[in-house]
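Hi L.,

You mentioned the student needs an example of a multi-chain input paired with its predicted structure. This one should do, with 480 residues in total across all chains.
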Amino acid sequence: METIVLYNTLTRRKETFEPLNPEYVGMYVCGPTVYGDPHLGHARPAVTFDLLFRYLQSLGYKVRYVRNITDVGHLEQDADDGEDKIAKKARLEQLEPMEIAHYYTERYRDAMRELGVKSPSIEPHASGHIIEQIEMVKRILDAGYAYESNGSIYFDVEKYNKDYHYGRLSGRNLDDIVTNTRELDGQSDKHHSFDFALWKKASPEHIMRWPSPWSDGFPGWHMECSAMSTKYLGEQFDIHGGGMDLMFPHHECEIAQSTAALGKD
Amino acid sequence: MITINGQKMGKSLGNFITLEQLFTGSHPILAQAYTPMTIRFFVLQAHYRSTLDFSNEALQAAEKGLDRLMKAVETLGKIKAAEKSTSDVNDLERRCKEAMADDLNSPMVISALFDWVRIINQAAEGQQSFTAADLESLKAIVNRYVFDILGLRNEKAAEAGGKDMVSPLVEMLLNMRMEAKAAKDWATSDKIRDNLTAIGIRVKDRKDGFDWEIE
Ligand SMILES: [Zn+2]
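Structure written out for the whole complex:
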């Protein structure tokens, strides 16, 4: 196979690309949260990863390209509190959240087809993988890197940072993160403001909810990508992609979750 | 990162543009509609890690560039083979290959392709020539990079092709209808007319034959 170099955000360097299994490439890319029409911000990463997908295939690699659909757990302002983006749209439009998710998934797919973006190999929905996400939360709890608080489960960033480096993708240290996050207002169930939700207990008005050992609730936004990438590509895979805007916190949290659950970097 | 006229995109900034608005031109910022392939080509013209600034000027330039590229692909199909080649087709292959292998450098691929757009156009004017074998490999290289890897498609040709198929099909059906009429097979004749009407094609009988139009 031809030698190619790709930029690795983790090392901030261009590196020779060597897949874990010769001939096979596993690639996971964070897809859209389906609560609105696809816009310019969706076009660029989609075209970029389509270019990579097509290129790797043209070189003869067998590529398994997984691109998820976020239809649950992505809250307003990308935060741990607030309304689910899809549920909010559903409330405004007086529809079921899943009607919103379906409609905008179709809109996204149509636009991608127009842009010549090939369909990925697998397009899993977060709502279709609640069991896998709960299992992964359990693993993180068992490994000791998460805590339960009032029916919700939070990732213990400080504990994790003692054993691994939280912030290694975005080039941050926990100290910087601490100074840049506001203090908790006393209302929160979290121990620290920089901890993030793995599972959230649903408030009475929150309609998108599933039973779990801890509460009727829903997974944290970052959980789906860790759970679905592990399910379809294994514990280690070759390429993880997404827009630069996702580097922190989304991808940073994904790395921490997967590392904590699987017990290795 | 993506910017629009140098500004970040945001709902509050009034420059939040959906893809449908781009494709139809229905946003106050947009001077015109831009086809999906213009957008794709525009994205590919910049390296994926660089900032991409959308503006009408930049998109119009991309539209022109894509048009030149697609015209050259069509021109390439019409060039006749000659005794000898005046340019080395491996040069294009090598440059595209190196650019892609160097962190997906699509702008370098496009710039190599444009150097060859010029060569192809010169060949059409008789200022360059290629052997039959070189023409075949040139076509293969161009197809591989333009269509398979960059994932572009020739929107204008596809549009024209779609229209061209309708006419001969309608004419064929209406000729069958003429034959049916001549054989006094009114049932078949009416069926063809009614079915065409149902899909929006109006048939008008004339003394010497027929006329038709899409409603
Ligand atoms: Zn993700």
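You could point out the following to them. The interface with chain B takes residues 2-7, 14, 37-44, 47-48, 50-52, 54-55, 58, 111, 114-118, 244 of chain A (CB under 8 Å). Chain A has eight helices and nine strands.

Best wishes,
N.
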